[in-house]
Design the sequence.
């Protein structure tokens, strides 16, 4: 950027701290040196006060609170409240929020008929997104773009409340078991685990180690600013579509292997290395092979050029959880060796290829008894409050309908010649 002959090199992050401490938006406005084209408004970029991310420094904060501190000190519902309403809840606010959620954990009985329509081979993520979207039919008032604040709150609470029920039922459909109803005497994660794993004639006790680990994983996935699924939620919601269809659209975006499906790919890769004898050095070299490079899944991130702070927390959690549950998963050792080797290797260091959030999360999910097909569903359960917060912010800011800018690359004008 050159202003009055003076040149500035700035990372193009509007509104964020940067090397020279200048807010670019403010600078542009004050100097009048550059005209912002309002026609480009809301095409791809957006302002948001929810999640701060500094990819160079490896910083992630929800509403100003560090992810490390939240993962250590809060539970998932507190973090959900923080993301959605902007502040950590007081005891009273927390009690009300969790009570309101418990009031809405049941889903309409007809949902079972919809579920019955899916073959057991249906991927649980597709089932989840469809069931979630069907809420628009059960709660048609959600279609009203001018809903009152109370109405919006009710939809938010319903979304948070029914998500574990839909997620567990999507799993039950895949394994061909009857569904379980939510047990409201339990906390959010335990309620989900019981709906997942309890069998009709058996006594089922939720293991608190499993419930706590899941709670932490959900916190770590709760928001990540404008990623693929989040911007999808915002753009679908910007047309004033219902909250349920907007959130369901986010789930569909998350489903893809490049987004939420990445941790599944990591497990497949680690299993492949294990089957091959577990020689991590060999696979590191394969990844560096110029002629036939092998893609190390779970390494590198579009925004983290240092390390993904969530990966550090998850790595420690994986160690703790597997030790507490007395599980010896050889793929954890392979993952640790891969990371160690990569962090010492100039090839990876130069390319800033560090393990990301997906690298260890699949290993923990597996240890918690969750099948691979459920990994994306777990991601969606964690991301739900982030999507809700982003949807709510977009609506409250009265953002215009999203319309990505297009650069036309086709023919200009063709003479019509019948073929
Ligand atoms: C996420 O948490 O959404 C992923 O790391 C992907 C992203 O942020 O682009």
Sequence:
């Amino acid at each position: 950027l050159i202003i009055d002959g003076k040149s500035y090199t700035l990372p193009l992050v509007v509104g964020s701290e940067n090397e020279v401490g200048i807010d670019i938006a403010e600078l542009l406005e004050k100097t009048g040196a550059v005209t912002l084209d309002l026609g480009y408004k809301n095409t791809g970029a957006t302002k948001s006060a929810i999640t701060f991310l500094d990819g160079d420094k490896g910083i992630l904060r929800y509403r100003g609170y560090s992810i490390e501190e939240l993962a250590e000190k809060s539970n998932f519902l507190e973090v959900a409240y923080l993301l959605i309403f902007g502040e950590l809840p007081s005891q009273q606010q927390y009690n009300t929020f969790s009570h309101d959620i418990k009031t809405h954990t049941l889903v309409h009985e007809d949902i079972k008929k919809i579920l019955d329509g899916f073959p057991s081979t249906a991927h649980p993520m597709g089932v989840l997104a469809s069931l979630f979207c069907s809420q628009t039919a059960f709660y048609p008032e959600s279609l009203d773009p001018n809903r009152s604040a109370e109405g919006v709150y009710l939809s938010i609470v319903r979304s948070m409340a029914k998500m574990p029920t839909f997620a567990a039922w999507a799993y039950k459909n895949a394994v061909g078991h009857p569904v379980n109803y939510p047990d409201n005497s339990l906390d959010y994660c335990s309620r989900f685990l019981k709906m997942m794993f309890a069998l009709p004639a058996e006594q089922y006790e939720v293991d608190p180690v499993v419930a706590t680990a899941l709670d932490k994983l959900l916190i770590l996935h709760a928001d990540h600013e404008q990623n693929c699924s989040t911007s999808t939620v915002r753009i679908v919601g910007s047309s004033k579509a219902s909250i349920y269809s907007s959130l369901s659209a986010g789930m569909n975006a998350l489903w893809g292997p490049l987004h939420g499906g990445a941790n599944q790919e990591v497990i497949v890769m680690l299993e492949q290395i294990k089957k091959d004898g577990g020689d991590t050095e060999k696979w590191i070299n394969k990844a560096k092979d110029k002629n036939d490079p092998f893609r190390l899944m779970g390494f590198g991130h579009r925004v983290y050029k240092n390390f993904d702070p969530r990966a550090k927390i998850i790595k420690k959690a994986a160690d703790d959880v597997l030790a507490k549950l007395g599980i010896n998963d050889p793929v954890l050792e392979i993952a640790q060796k891969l990371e160690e080797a990569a962090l010492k290797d100039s090839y990876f260091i130069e390319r800033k290829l560090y393990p990301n959030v997906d690298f260890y999360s699949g290993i923990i999910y597996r240890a918690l008894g969750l099948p691979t097909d459920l990994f994306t569903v777990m991601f969606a359960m964690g991301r739900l409050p982030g999507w809700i917060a982003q949807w709510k912010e977009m609506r409250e800011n009265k953002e215009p309908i999203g319309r990505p800018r297009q650069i036309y690359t086709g023919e200009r004008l063709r003479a019509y010649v019948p073929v």
About this structure: Residues 13-17 have pLDDT under 50 and may be disordered.
